[in-house]
Amino acid sequence: MKPVRTAASYSLPIFVLLAYLLMYVPIVVLIFYSFNGGQTPHQWEGFSLVWYRELFASVEILDALRNSLIVAFSSVVLSVVMGLFFVFYSARTVLQNFLFLFYGSLAAPEVVLAVGLLSFFAFFSIPLGLTTLIAAHTLVGLSYVTPILYSSFKGLDYRITEASLDLGATEWQTFTKVIVPMLSPAIMGASLLVFIISFDDFILSFFCSGASTMTLPMYIFATIRSGATPVINALSTLLLVMSSLAVLVFTLFRVRTRVF
Amino acid sequence: MIPALLWQILFLYLPLVFIIFVSFLKDIDYLVVGNLSLQHYTDLLKPIYLKIWGRSLSLAFFTSTLCLAIAYPVAYFLVFRIKRMRNLLLFLLVLPFWANFLVLVYAWFFVLEQGGILNSFLLNLGIISEPLRILNTQFAVYLVMLFCFLPFMVMPIYSSMEKINKSIFEASFDLGANRWQTLTRIIMPLSSSGIRTGFFLVFIPAFGEFVVPLLLGGGKTMYVGSLISFLFLETKSIEWGAAFTCVSGIILIVAVFALNKLLKTIFGKERV
Amino acid sequence: MREIKLKNIKKVFDGEPILEGINLTIPSGEFFALLGPSGSGKTTLLRLIAGFEQADEGAIFLGSKNITDVPINKRRVNTVFQNYALFPHLNVFDNVAYGLKIKNVKKETIEQKVIRILKTVHLEKHIYKSIDQLSGGQQQRVALARAIVNEPDVLLLDEPLAALDLKLREKMLVELIDLQDELKTTFVYVTHDQFEALTVADRMAIMNADGEIEQVGTPKEIYEFPASSFVASFVGSTNLLKGTIRQEGARNQIEIEDLGLFDLHIPVDKPWAKDGVQVLMSIRPEKFEVSKTELAGFSNHLVGTVDSIVYHGRSTQYHISLPNETVIKVFEQNEEHFPQEEIDYDDKVNIYWQKENVVLLET
Q1: Any chain C CB within 8 A of the CB of B178?
Q2: How far, in Å, CA of C309 to CA of C85, rounded?
Q3: What CATH number does the domain containing A133 carry?
Q4: In 3D, which of A217, A194, A186, A190 has the Cα closest to residue A140?
Q5: Which residues numbered 4-33 in A keep a CB inside 8 Å of some CB on C?
Q6: Which of A27, A41, A255, C282 lies 20 to 30 Å (CA to CA) from residue A188?
Q7: In a mutagenesis test of the C interface, which of A2, A4, A5, A9 is the best target, namely the one with the most C β-carbons within 10 Å?
Q8: Could you say which of C50, C85, C99 has the minimum Cβ distance to residue B168?
Q9: By CA distance, what is C151's nearest residue in B?
Q10: What is the pLDDT of residue A189?
Q11: Closest CA to B1 of A190, A146, A170, A153
Q12: Which chains touch B (3 or more CB pairs under 8 A)?
């Protein structure tokens, strides 16, 4: 219908604008004040990078960052490799009916997962630490990786596999030389997704990492509770930049390849 | 392929079964059949726990409903009302989705603090004479929940609206319907599966949420998530925590089924 | 029932002019076709009448009422869409009843009208089925029923048969003609297929690629008396021969370079056709007579060589090259099982035509 320019037809755009503003005002303020030179967090005292310098000097933060990175990378590798094998061997066999099992970790609230894992580890007296955390994150990672890779795999023309076998390749060679390269956009996308999810995760880490290990989100949490310094602002800004880059890369993948 | 399945079973399903089992135990150190009892469950029938469940259900329900009320027009706007800025606005919408949840929560915390930006702003404008105590209130909790979960609601609704064939609108107008009638009779039923997906993408995590109430609500009011955290991490009474978790899980499942039916009646089923 | 009048309609899309000064009157109760190549603006014109587009200039009248600014849902006009645009979440009955429900018609009346229209389009066995259970042809009829049940003043059809196979299309064309006869509603039918247009239309308009109407008339008028070389070539096929008019006293002739002089009939409605004027002579392929032997009784005669022969069952198409190196197309009906003469490749043949079976067109 030809839109009639009444007041009513402006109300929707204004509403949407307000919604976006409210989503972004705190973020923008945060970024802005991360460059605040002064000590008092809410009085603007001139532009400065002092908090960023403190950030990079802080041993605690760097430790937490290191832990987060280790866990994230390991989870990505484990979940992608396992997911890939599962998808390859299960497609077109009975096993594909078990795909729904992977949705369990998505459907339940994270607290439930965390608590389940915690009791499990406690019962078998497994010490909490980076390894338990990696186990937990891989679990979540699997439930994202498997559906993505599965639907991407289903989208491949299976005649290509047949062509490869026809030309003399073994199943393993077909897998490594044909299927994996064709799935690489989906693999990249899924890896990025799992990385971000693991890196940002708080609840599972909170429960399953024990007293001695701390990841970056846990550090932020602890600092907020005990009294935030503007260093957190700087840290937050950097994390936001990282996420934005991740979204950009992810979107570009989707747009360029349309595999998933 | 086996490792993947094993992993899932080992780390998800086994622990879940374990939790259920544990909830019936009196004391976790004695894994003997004679040690089973319903004691933990009966302990939970006290009103204090019912209040906690009620509170979490409330929080989840109102967050989801408010999110829906805001997200639906936003999704509608993005699908039907703009073309050129759409990709930019979608990008801006997805961004908070990928950002660290804690960072988002902290951003609101920073703004709402007593010495914070919002207060300075309002004080300077003379609108208020004393700083508002927004933090440590229920209002703050609801507000932050709303805006942190908003992208989760918009995405599925956007997806389902996008799939609608545009000529169907022209057909609806052609047959005499105005914009509102087209919205309620055509768009809503056809986007109803997106609505339900979005609703539960918010409701389920919101039910178990404890970070936001803890950081923004002062931590004095107990929600399901905070009680679970307390029971497991601070009192180490795993059996009790297990029982509470199981009942919470059942309550959640029942709530989800009921709400799903409700949403289906309100927004219509997609008969595709 | 009211007539449609389009006055000086202009429409531009993204800087490209789609319609240039369209003036058209469609009398009430007619089955009117809009025929033209892709990009001629015929669909845009239809959408303007429906209200999906707004004209940049000009006005649209339905009867005496100016509907140019009337919104889509208030016009007594209904559309049958090319892709049907059926509501996927409603079954056949609810789809057809949609317009009536919007108008708050009584439930019993709705039921009555819907079932009646579904019977008319032969869908009475499918009333409560869901849309995805129907074939393409059935869906098309639901779209038709859904529009007609609202008893509009005008029914607009946007290439409605495009997605159907040939046999089904032919069947539906006949059904549409019968339907229009029965309802007496004005039908405006857009198509790029001249066979469809010639079959269904009481009158039709031919649009060219520049968004102008070249000619309006009955199918016979358009075919036998095209107003321009575009119409002559677009509807059916034709041979266009360029020549100069030579008038000597009462005798009219046309001189074609390297071919000579031929008798010409100049109709009274073409006063511009005078001595010395360059014209295009349009002769349809079926208007020629071809023979190896000599025939008598024709005003004009040429000799040519057969370049190609294509057998089409009930007719044969010849490409014959003339002494001036132009090639003409000739159709001969295969009237005889055992024809008296067999025409073969490279044969020298006589080509005859009557001077009245020619249309003179401006160059």
Answers
A1: yes
A2: 45
A3: 1.10.3720.10
A4: A194
A5: 4
A6: A27
A7: A2
A8: C85
A9: B175
A10: 84
A11: A146
A12: A, C
Q: At what angle do helices A7-34 and B86-98 cross, to 10 degrees?
A: 50
- Residue C209 near residue C39, CB atoms below 8 Å: yes
Give the amino acid at A246.
A
Per DSSP, chain A holds a count of helices (H) and strands (E) of 12, 0
Q: Give domain limits for chain B.
A: 1-37, 46-267
Q: Could you tell me the two tokens for C296?
A: 């008598």
Cross-chain Cβ contact A236/B120 below 8 Å: no
The count of other CB atoms within 10 Å of the CB of residue B193 is 20
Whether A112 sits inside 8 A of B245 (CB atoms) is yes
With a cut of 90, say whether residue A28 has pLDDT above it.
no
> What class has domain C239-362?
mainly beta
Task: Kindly report the nearest CA distance between residue B203 and chain C, in angstroms.
Answer: 27
CATH superfamily of the C4-233 domain:
P-loop containing nucleotide triphosphate hydrolases (3.40.50.300)
The 10 Å Cβ neighbour count of residue C27 is: 14
Q: Which domain holds residue A250?
A: 58-257
In which order are the strands placed within the sheet that holds C186-191?
A: C77-80, C154-158, C186-191, C31-35, C203-207, C213-217
Residue A173 in any domain: the answer is yes
Query: Which of B116, B179, B224 lies at the smallest CB-CB distance from A42?
Result: B116
Closest residue, chain B, to C82 (C-alpha):
B167
Does residue B100 contact residue A224 with C-beta atoms inside 8 Å?
Answer: no
Q: Which sign, positive or negative, has the C-alpha torsion A28, B148, A22, A26? A: negative
From CA B78, how far away is CA C230, in angstroms rounded? 45
pLDDT one-digit tens code per residue, B77-129: 998 888 888 888 888 888 888 888 888 888 888 887 766 667 677 777 776 66
Facing A247 at nearest CB: one of B22, B28, B95: B95
Please report which confidence band the pLDDT of residue C109 belongs to, taking 50, 70 and 90 as the band edges. very high
Closest CA to A207 of B245, B151, B64: B245
Class of the B46-267 domain? mainly alpha
Average pLDDT, chain C: 91
Contact A2 C73 (CB under 8 A): no
Q: Sign (positive/negative) of CA torsion C125, C130, C134, C138?
A: positive
Asked if residue A121 belongs to a domain, the reply is yes
Distance from CA of B10 to the nearest CA of A (A): 10
What 3 state SS string does B162-190 have? HCCCCHHHHHHHHCCCCHHHHHHHHHHHH
Q: How far apart are CA C50 and CA A206, in angstroms?
A: 62
Tokens describing residue B3: 């490792």
Q: What is the mean pLDDT of residues C25-36?
A: 93
Least confident window among B112-116, B268-272, C4-8? B268-272
- Residues in chain B within 8 Å Cβ distance of A244: 95
Which residues neighbour A52 within 8 Å (Cβ) at sequence distance 6 or greater?
A34, A234, A238
pLDDT given for residue A93 in this prediction: 66
Strand, helix or coil for residue C105:
coil
CA distance from start to end of chain B: 34
Look at residue B31 and tell me whether its pLDDT is greater than 60.
no
Residue C216, strand partner residues: C205
In the DSSP assignment, the letter for residue C149 is T
Instruction: Report how many domains make up chain A.
Output: 1
**ipTM, 2 decimals?**
0.81
Per-residue pLDDT reduced to its tens digit, A48-94: 777 777 788 888 888 888 889 999 999 999 888 888 877 777 766 66
Q: In this complex, do A109 and B205 lie within 8 Å of one another by their Cβ atoms?
A: yes
Q: Is A2 on the interface with C (CB under 8 A)?
A: yes
Q: How far apart are CA C261 and CA C329, in angstroms?
A: 20
Ranges in chain C annotated CATH 2.40.50.140: 239-362
